[in-house]
Amino acid sequence: MSKKLITPMLLAVLLTACSLHYGMTASASEIDGTPSPVPDIASAADNALYWINEGTTYRSGAALQFYATGAGYGPKEPQELNPVNKSTRYIPVSWKVSTKSQSGTRSAKGTWRKYTEETTRFGKREYRFRASFTLKTVGSVSVPYKLKVTYKKQVYNGTKKSWQDSGNHAYKSVDFYIRNTATPTVISRPGGVSIYPSNTPVLSIKNNSKIEVGSKKQLKVSNLSTRPIFSSSDKKVAKINKKTGEITALKAGTAIITVKAPAIGQYDGYWDSISIRAVPKTIRITSAVSRKKGRLTIKGTASSKNITGYKIQYQYSFGDINTVVVKSNKILNHTIKGLKSGKRCRARVCAFKKVKGKIFSGYYSHWADAGKIR
Known about the structure:
Helices cover 6% and strands 46% of the residues. It is mostly beta strands. A 5-stranded mixed β-sheet has the order 2-9-8-4-5, with no helix packed on it. Strands 23, 24, 26, 27 and 28 form a 5-stranded antiparallel β-sheet that branches. Strands 1-3-7-6 form a 4-stranded antiparallel β-sheet, with no helix packed on it.
């Protein structure tokens, strides 16, 4: 008996006959030997929620924006490009914000604006479902608000070639706080969202303030929930106690004082800085006398040898103020010539220090009455 080869077509006919006889069915992939496509299964753990951060405190009355993305739902996801039978995906359908307190449950809820297709900084394309809300009530210190997003699960039906709701849902939530507490001056969020607190921390010393060399000044921060840490950019010009905020000016110049407060629990951190100018000590006028015609002699107390000179200002009967610069670090004893005889005059003085081309002038003394010029 001669051996005959069984062709693929003959094998298919035999299998079909067997399946009809025994009530079995066979797929085309089983007949031709190709493997069945594997469905793409999305994980609920990959659902994401952005711009509302866990444990963060936000200002009462601020418009808070956020967006959600669903696992397996995006323009470049396999489920979108080439869906396979029994593949799954998640789509955000609704959201709700709520909190419980002694006065009952307060909440806000809503649906999404039309989703947008955007690219992340890592080059990934995704569908973003955006929404916003405003809470004008202030929550409890111990009880947070909860933002809860609901996702519906869908399964792809290869026969109908369409996505079908499975009837199952997944949830993503984040806890945050709404209060009129101290938070950073500006909290920048992705997408250009900025939140400005109602009780912004305020520094007791203004930017570009003067502090006399050898003196101390206390820097305080109001409306701050956590303890600040202070530092100086130039400890040779001005040093500061990192715990108490006491500034000591050491020599003429500029120093940047930085204030930082760490984020603890539901309280955000804080950062700010100011520039302070360390200047020579104030000079006190001991004598302002006109002993000769058209002349005025000014004498003052010593400031320090570490100065460049003095600025003398004089004024006739509350008219224009004139300035004379004296380049000397000796005790002030200077005569101004060419003044108008018979005019009543007064004068004041300050010391200055020149550092790297910049002039650091101290505070002017009180006006000293010199009487009438001879």
